[in-house]
Design a protein that fits this description.
Elements lengths: L22 H17 L3 E2 L5 E3 H7 L5 H6 L2 E2 L11 E3 L4 H10 L9 E10 L11 E10 L4 H16 L7 E6 L6 H12 L8 H9 L14 H4 L10 H16 L5 E2 L11 E8 L8 E7 L3 H5 L6 E7 H10 L12 E7 L4 H14 L4 E3 L6 H10 L2 E7 L1 H6 L1 E6 L4 E6 L3 H7 L3
Parallel strand pairs: 1-5, 7-8, 12-13, 12-14
Antiparallel strand pairs: 2-4, 3-4, 5-6, 6-11, 7-9, 9-10, 10-11, 14-15, 15-16
Length: about 425
Amino acid sequence: MSIQAPRGFNDILPGEQYGWRDSYRWQRLEETFREVARLYGYQELRPPMVEYVELFIHGVGATTDIVTKEMFNITPRGDDPDPRRMAMRPEFTAGLVRAYLENGLYNSPQPTKLFAYGPAFRYENVQKGRFRGFHQLDVEVFGAQDPAVDAEVIKLGLDVVARLGLTGLVVSVNSIGCPNCRPRYRSALQNHFRPHLGELCEDCRTRFDKNPLRLIDCKKDAAHPAQQTAPVGLDYLCDDCRSHWEGLLGHLEAMGIPYQIDTRIVRGLDYYTKTVFEVLHPKLGAQSTLWGGGRYDGLIEVVGGKPTPGVGFGMGMERVLMVLEEEGLTAPFEGRPRLDAFVVTLGDAARPVGLRLLYELRAAGLSADIDYLGRSMKAQMKYAGKQNSRFVVILGEDEVQRGVASVKHMDEGTQESVPLDQIISHLRRAEP
């Protein structure tokens, strides 16, 4: 029997000693994301972790690495009344589009602004910042073509990490055009790379006919001269895409968001149109992209809906937390929840009284705990300290007979006798 987690999957554990895997840090990041999303007018949608494979084939793209190499597929049993193959979600956008259509969210006032977060799965090589089981914060906007929305989703992500103190990020943007102007660019790329095809990696040779835009962001051939001199997609934009691109840059400048134009960003999914962006931090090395996204104006139609514009991003939680740790940004995670009271009991007569008091404290909204291992008083006090308890409520047989308890303020080191029926009000008065 293996006692190790599968390769590429991580336990998220309670305790500062676990660094970026400390569950309190995860909670803090999730709370910050939810709060910023709420301020921006986004609503939560929780899609299932499993979707039918064809959703990703049609939505993400049949030739993408996700579909051809990385999905965790589930083959139904022979007696399953639904024989269609399913997959653990490799990303959020396709599932949110499916939920938007299936549940008729397009009938609500538009645009529809959604956020989601949780685990996703890709069968890929494990390295720093890249896991097979990972987590994303995701936002999507359906039904708005305005480039101001593209700028908004970029700003939303920046606001989330700024609240945690993270700076020094690089916002890289590009436009990959639309179905009207992209064919010319595809043709120009193929004409440029065709004489060098035999010199490129196997993936690039496969992409040459099916997805030539991926030729310019291949990491294996990054140093090849053909990549350095490849045609630039911005030179091939139609008037509509050019106007949208200039509008995006204008909004970023108006918001005071520094950016760089990176014409090699195409993103790895087929559904992107016009705006694509990545937010990077150099601390992660090869996996420096903390989050990325863009516009996908044709995706909803491909999945089966009416033509509807869309834009969004997926942010890697592991990567954000790793960078925060490497930057020493622990302040947002300090002040972790403390236990309000730990009840110490001594003797058989005190035990039932202590248990009753424990549940009265919890019912009153105070966090409280008690010893379950039969420790000595000294050991119980030591354990209460490790639990970071504000107060220790001490009950011995003598205190029970007198109807009182000794309450010790752990931070101040003071101790006083308090009637049992006044314990709750006493602790509340002493709350910081």
